[in-house]
Amino acid sequence: MLLPNYSDFLLECGTDEAGRGCLAGPVTAAAVLLPKKFKNLILNDSKQLSEKKRDILKPIIEAQALSFGVAHVFQEKIDSINILNASILAMQLSIDQLNPLPEFIIVDGNKFKPYKNVPFETIIKGDAKYLSIAAASVLAKTHRDMYMNTIHEEFPMYNWKQNKGYPTKEHRAAIKKYGVTKYHRKSFRLLPEQLKFDI
């Protein structure tokens, strides 16, 4: 069972991101303030859920949350400030959208930067421990997937509808064949280095 709250604050939000390890597209974060009595038996870390379950949960979370926010940070910004800073920025931009603002923030992972003097705690595997982080993980993932499905139409040869920009064999093969697009993260190693042995 996931826990409702980490702190004693009434307004505690959870935040998480999706798409950190992708070669293309944005890193997307969500922040969610859930009511005290929120319960859902399916909700879990989005990685543990099927796409179908995530799609069922998305409107439930959005309807029942006190407030939620979702933010994309795109590839140009990722390339200029690096993926860790871009992930934190996306989380902070998603928290900006909350109304009311949270009194306490719980963050999935082990890295965050102070946000408007609001106390926070980073929690490793927090998306499998706390309802609000799990809810944020579902919203981040579903909103990012919707975006990747849209840009798939523009460049279907990379099959982003299927791989969502992650470094699958198929995605790397398409990069090798067709080169990179404006959606690719230029600062990432898009192809494994070819090793040559001079014998």
TrEMBL record:
Coiled coil: none annotated. Manganese or magnesium. Binds 1 divalent metal ion per monomer in the absence of substrate. May bind a second metal ion after substrate binding. Gene3D superfamilies: Ribonuclease H-like superfamily/Ribonuclease H. PROSITE patterns: RNASE_H_2 (PS51975). Its EC number is 3.1.26.4. It comes from the Bacteria. A divalent metal cation binds at residues 16-17, 108. Its main location: cytoplasm. Pfam families: RNase_HII (PF01351). Residues 10-199 form the RNase H type-2 domain. The keyword Cytoplasm applies. It is found in: Cytoplasm. Its cofactor is Mg(2+); Mn(2+). InterPro entries: RNase_HII (IPR022898), RNase_HII/HIII (IPR001352), RNase_HII/HIII_dom (IPR024567), RNaseH-like_sf (IPR012337), RNaseH_sf (IPR036397). It catalyses: Endonucleolytic cleavage to 5'-phosphomonoester. The keyword NAD does not apply. Keywords: Cytoplasm, Endonuclease, Hydrolase, Manganese, Metal-binding, Nuclease. PANTHER family: RIBONUCLEASE H2 SUBUNIT A, RIBONUCLEASE HII. Endonuclease that specifically degrades the RNA of RNA-DNA hybrids. Belongs to the RNase HII family. This is Ribonuclease HII. It comes from Algibacter agarivorans. The gene is rnhB.
